[in-house]
Amino acid sequence: MLGVEPPPPPAAPPAPYLSAFLAAPLALAVVDRRGQVVTANAALSAMLGADEPAALEGRTAAELVDLASDSRTWHSYREVLRGRQARLTCTRRIKHPDGHSLWIQVTVSPVPGGRTVLLSLTDISARRELQARLRHLQMHDPVTRLPNRTLFFERLSAALEAGAYDGAGTGRIGLCYLDLDGFKAVNDTLGHGVGDRLLAAVAERLTRCADRIGYDRGAVAPLVARLGGDEFALLVEDSAGTEQLAGLADSVLRTLQEPFDLSGQRLAVSASIGVVERHMEGTTATGLMQAADTTLYWAKADGKARWTLFDPERNAHRMTRQALSSGLRPAVERGEFVLEYQPLVNLGDGVLRGVEALVRWDHPQFGMLSPNRFIGLAEEDGSIVQLGRWILRTACRQARAWQLQHPEAPPVYVSVNVAVRQVWDSDLVADVAEVLAETGLPPELLQLELTESAVMGSAGRPLQALQSLSDMGVHIAIDDFGTGYSNLAYLSRLPVSVLKLDGSFVRGFQYDDGGEHATPADAVIVEAMVQLAHRLGLTVTAECVETAAQAARLRQIGCDTGQGWLYSRPVAPDRISALLTTS
């Protein structure tokens, strides 16, 4: 029997208060210092299912209300009995003899006089039930009745925490994260009422799918939750591996492919699903959801109506891309970019005529990066304007330095690539005028290169900018010509002075030891473009010239300038100075 050291014999409750004690609606009992019930009232006997209050006398109070079930409560209770603690309040769930359960609030406090304590019980079952209902409403989506984002993350965090210490399961977790393709169009065209009915129908199918998977495995069904909007998640605890998650994703896609009949309105929807499966150890809820969100994005980018499995290598590439993108603007301010220069050589006499400025990023983490690693990112986020100004200023300053250092040599022009966003998002004409004035470089020694797709079809501001630059004396070149619109007739209306043939045409000039070219069609195309360009008063530069045979053929066709590894790779400014000294 539970108890403590025997105290002095208890005194009965004072007679004036006995009647009030026995008739009180609050369940009460007087307990002696040994923990045994001295007397109880009718409310307590009714709550505990006793025949009469006298049946409780001599019973151990701790057993009646389960005070010994946890060590902390049991210790506090004994301290109250010994007079060392003023009060104990706790909540307990007890079993009524008729089978139903009760939630009660237990309070134990000393009775003046020091020989007994008063035990009082309050039935809080209704309050607990209300709290449970409120929590259910708080944790469930009202449209689909599925667990919402809050409950999902609570379950996910609990699963990961349990998986870190429980060696009984597989130690793995899986997640299918999906959203409906084109759901916004349903809301926009048919109304949110139809959209909500569709979401509820989707939730019902996902739940059936999860229940079927759980039944087939003989395990708990995956948790299905609506995370918001048209986003749903299926959480698989103790995953059996990626094959199981792939099978679940396939099942979900097949389930959703069947048309939905919503009050006579037939709708067909599809879903994109990101699938993640991994060890629980070292996995966090945030990390798992980030991986799932990324993979869902891949599924949509890959064409929608499909599932995609998380790929660490692809994610590493994405993270690298994100790191580069976020570091572009600060990198310009920190001076992490450098320029190299590739010679542009006259095909007729082999004399250096100009150089193309090519930017490199000396990244502190990833090393020296070529333009194809970051220029596209700079165009996307607009930092190409800031970077382009730096390239223009640096290249013009260097070209002017060469001119001053080698007054005896023919001056070489510098060719700078310009993104179309620089024309739209900045005053390119003002930028060029400012740089030329600042560096002292003559306008005719600056050439600006724009891609064919950026120039063709230009109108309004871009065309006006190009015309103003041409009027200033700056040369305009079309880069990678022949790969875009190839609207040759439009060239006559553009202030363009140079065409740069795309390297794919030059690479087609392949020769064997006998000197016979293997691809005559490329030669015919290039020759036609060169002749047309010359008739329009334009000069032609051939890119990617790698062999003397290619150079000879291009010279024969009539190309004016060549650029490529035959002459030089992109080099530092001092190497260009050396070439000017020896020319």
From TrEMBL:
Entry-linked Gene3D superfamilies: 3.30.70.270, EAL domain, PAS domain
Residues of the GGDEF domain: 171-312
CDD domains with a match to the protein in the record: EAL, GGDEF, PAS
Pfam entry (one): GGDEF
Domain EAL as annotated: residue spans: 321-583
Full protein name: EAL domain-containing protein
